[in-house]
Amino acid sequence: MSDGNYTPRERRTFWAAFLAGVALVVGYAVYSLWPQSFEPNAAIAQSDFPKVEITVAGEANGVIEITLRPDLAPQHVERIITLAKEGTYDNVVFHRVIDGFMAQAGDVEFGKADGNGGRAGMGGSTYPDLPAEFTEEPYVAGTVGMARSQNPNSANSQFFIMFAPGDFLNGQYTVVGNVTSGFDVVQAIKRGEGPNGSVLGKPDVMTSMRVVE
C-alpha cells in the first residue's frame, strides 16, 4: 500500500514506531548471542497480583498466563485489564516477532486477524496514551513490556513478550507483567520474516484474553 493512503497522523505514527523499532533491533543484535533461558518467578506467580490468560492459535497453540505488575505500572495494568474485560484484545495478531528477541501484539485498531494487516503496529485503543512508568525491573525471558514510539509517553495497548534477556530495555520501556505459565507457547509463536520483524502471511492470533478473577 502506498504512503499516500495513510493519514498524516498514521504516517507520523509509522515513522516514530519504525525508528523506535530500529533502535530495538540494534540493541537486540548485541544481545542475540547471549544464552537464552526461562525460569518463572515463583514469588510473582504465587502473588495476589492480577493475571490474564491469552489463548493463542496458529503455529503456537495453547494458553499463556501473564501475571500483571500493578506494583510497577498501575496505569498500564489498569489499561490491559480494561481492554481484556471489554474483549478488545480478542482476535488480535502477533504482528511483529523477532526470533531470539520478542513477540509483539496488542494493536487493537489495525491488528485484528480479519482486518488490514498492512497497518498492524500503527494503532492503539480509543483510550488516551499513557505516561511512562519506567522502572529498573530487568527485562528477562518472559518479561512483558509496553510497546511505544520514540515518545516515552506513547504506550497505549500494544505489548511485547521477551524470548530472551534484554538489559538494553531496562528503564526505557514500561514493564507491565511476567509470563508465569505457558512460555512454551510463547516460544512457538510464528516468527516474522518481513522488515523489522513483521510477520508475513497469516500471523498467530490471540483468540481471547481473559482476566483471571
Structural class by SSE content:
alpha+beta
Please write the string of helix (H) and strand (E) elements: HHEEHEEEEEHE
Please report the number of helical segments.
4
Helix content: 10-25%
Beta-strand content bin: 15-25%
Mean pLDDT over the full residue set = 87
Q: Could you walk me through the main structural features you see in this protein, from its secondary elements to its overall organization?
A:
The chain is of the alpha+beta class. The protein has an 8-stranded antiparallel beta barrel with strand order 1-2-7-5-6-4-3-8. A hairpin with a 4-residue loop joins strand 1 (51-57) and strand 2 (62-68). It has helices at residues 8-31, 42-45, 74-86, 183-188, and strands at 51-57, 62-68, 92-98, 102-105, 143-146, 159-162, 175-181, 205-212. The chain has a single domain (3-212), classed as Cyclophilin-like (Cyclophilin), CATH 2.40.100. Mean pLDDT is 87; it is low at 29-35. 22% of the residues lie in helices and 23% in strands. The longest helix is centred in the N-terminal third of the chain and has 24 residues, at 8-31.
